[in-house]
Amino acid sequence: MKRTFLKLATSIVACSALVASLNAADVIKIGVQAPITGKYANEGQSIDNGVRLIVDQYNAKGGVLGKKLEVVSCDDEGVAQKAAICARKLVNAGVLAVIGSYTSGATEAAQPTYYRNGVLQTSDGTSDSLTKHKYWTFFRNSFPNSAEAEFTANYFVNVKHYKKIAVLSDYSSYATGLADATVKALKKVNGNVIYRGKIKSGTQNFTAVLTKIKSLNPDVIYFSGYYNDGGLLRAQQIQLGIKADFVGGDSNDNPDFMKLAGDSAKGTYLINVPTPDILPYDLAKKFLKDYKAKYGMMPASIWTLLNIDGLRAVLHGVEQTKSTDTKKISNFLHTLKGFPGITGPVNFRSDGERIGGGYMAYEVQADNSYKIVYK
Amino acid sequence: MDIFLQQLINGLTVGSLYALVALGYTMVYGVMKLINFAHGDLVALSAFAGLTIYVEIFGEGKNSILLVLGVFVITALIISLVGVLLERLAYRPLRTAPRLSAVVSALGASLVIQNSIMLIWGPNMKIFPSNLFPSTVWNLSGVVFTFTQVMIMGISAILMVALYIFINKTKMGTAIRATAIDQDAAKLMGINVNKVIMTIFIIGSALGAVAGLFIGINYRGITFDMGWTYGLNAFVAAIMGGIGNIPGAMLGGILLGLFNAMISGYISSEWAETFTFVLLVVILIFRPTGILGETIAEKV
Fold this sequence. Notes:
The complex is a heterodimer of chains A (375) and B (300). By secondary structure, chain A is α/β, with parallel strands linked by helices. Chain A has helices spanning 2-26, 41-60, 80-92, 104-116, 145-159, 173-188, 207-216, 227-239, 255-261, 282-295, 302-321, 326-334; strands at residues 27-34, 68-75, 97-100, 120-123, 138-140, 165-169, 193-198, 220-223, 245-248, 269-272, 347-348, 354-355, 360-364, 370-374. In chain A, the strands form 3 sheets. In chain A, strands 7-6-8-9-10-13-14 form a 7-stranded mixed beta sheet, sandwiched between helices. In chain A, strands 2-1-3-4-5 form a 5-stranded parallel beta sheet, sandwiched between helices. A two-stranded antiparallel ribbon of chain A has the order 11-12. Chain B has a domain at 19-227. Helix content of chain B is 74%, strand content 4%. A two-stranded antiparallel sheet of chain B has the order 1-4. In chain B, strands 2-3 form a two-stranded antiparallel sheet.
C-alpha cells in the first residue's frame, strides 16, 4: 500500500515537473512589481510601460534563448503589505525575475519571498538596508544613499571648499539616513559640520531653526528631506537674508520645489542622478525615442530607466549563461563588469550593489532649468 | 541681540496665527463645552477656497489691495457659512446628548471636511501664487521682517482687539458671556441661545478663515491634511491660555509661538515640541484651568 502511494506520488511529481518544464519551454516570464496605482502611480506605470517596451523589442528579435518573453504585472501601491502579496503572486506565476519595486519599503517587504523561491529581483530602492541581507537573488539597479552621501561630501569639501556646513533633515527614515550618511562621509574627508538639525515635515514655519543656523554663519545649508519642505526652507532662508548656499538632496528634485521657493529657487543646488533627457548615451536616446513613440510621452523619471537597466542586465545574464537557472544567472551578474546600460555602465558587486554612482550636481537657473555644475 | 529679536518676530508671526485659530476653539468651548475638532479643517478649507477664488474668479496675476481684501471677505463669508452648517448638522442635534457623542460627531465632521477637500482639490499639495502681498522685506540692522509678517501680526492684533470689544461692550457680547456662564439661566432671561451659538460659529470660523489665508500667503504650500497640524497647535494654545477664555486664547497662541521659536533657537529644534508639551503640563499642574482660566466651582 505504502509503495503504491509512493509510486503514485512520484509519478504525480514527475508529471507536474514535466508540465512545468513544458511551460518553461514556451516562455520566460518576467514579473513587474510596481506602484501602478496610488501616490506613486505615475512612476509605477512608467516602469511597467518601460518593461513591456523592452520585452516587445526582445520578442520582435525572436525572444531570448529562442523563447518568448511574457510580462506579469502586480500592483503593490508602494505599500509593504501589498508588496508581500505581490511577491507571493509573482512567485506562483513562475516568473524568472522581478523588476521592482519602486519604493524601498515595498522592495524590502518582498525581498525574502523572492530569495526563498530563488526568483531574481532588481529594484531602484535607494535605502542602504536593501543589500545588507546579502540575498543572492537581489540586484540594485540604482545607487544607494551612501553613494549620494559620498558624492555630496566630496563636492562640498573638494570642489566647493565649504568651511562651515549645516545639515538638516526631517524625521523620515530616508532623510535621516541620507543626512547621517552625509555627515559620516563629510567627517571622512575632514569636512566641518557645524550644525546637524531636524525639522518636522509639514510644519511650514522653519524661521526659528533657520535663524539659529544664521547665527552660526555657515557657508552651506544641506537639506536631505523632501521638496515640500525644501522649497519652503529655501524661500525662508532667502527671506531671512542668510547668505549660505542651499543644497538639496535627490528628493528636492521636483517641480514643486521651484514653485514653493518662487524667486528664491534660483541659485539652489540639487544633487541627483541625471534626468533622462541629459543622459549622454546612445542607448538612452534610443530608449527615450522608442518610449515616446509607443506611449506618446516621456518616462516619468530616471527611475524607469534604472529599472530597465536592471531588466536588460538580467536578460543579458540569461543569454550569456544560456540558462534559465537563476543561481547561474546570479553568479554571472555578481561579476558583471561594464555592461552597457541606458544609465551608464552596469557593474554589480557580490552583494548585489550596483557600482558606479552617476550622481550630478545641478544649479537651478532663473527660468528653473538645470545647469550641470559637477559630475 | 539681533538673533533674539529675529526669533521674537518669528515667534510672534506663528503665534498670531495660532491665536487666531485658538479663538475658534475657545469660543465654542466657552459656550457649548464642546471641543470643535473640525475647526482646524475649516482653516485648511479656507486656504483652498481662498486660492480657488483668487485664481479662478479674480484671475491670477492681478493684485490690488482691494482684490486681496475681496478674497479675504468672500472666503471668510463662505467659511462662516460652513461653520454655521457644521453646527446645524453635526452639533445641534446632539446638544442634549452625552458630551462624548458630540466629541465623536466633531471628529467625524473633521474627517468629512478633510476628505471633501481631498476629493475636490486632490491629494497633492497646492501652491499659492507669490504675489498676493508685495514681497517687501525690511532689514533693520540684521533683523528681517516681511510685509506679509507685518500684515499677519497687525491684522491679527486688530481682529483680536475688535473681538475683545465686541464680547465686553456690546449687547450680543453680553449675551454670549451669559450663555457661557449658564445656558439655562440665559434662556430664562430671554436670550436666544441658538442665535448666540450661531454668532460664535460665524466669528470663530471667520477668524479661522483669515488664519487659513495667511498660512497660504505666507507659507505658499497647502495640503488637505494641514488642518491637523495647525489645529493641534492652536488647541494646545487654547488650553494653555485657559480654554473658554478669549484673552487666554490670544495669550496662549502668542506664548506658544514665542516659546517654540526660542526653544528652536537656543536649545534645539528637535526638542521644541517636547518642551512645549512639558510647559503645557507644568502650567496645568499649577493652574489646572490654564493661565487665564477662571476657577470653576465643582458642581456636586
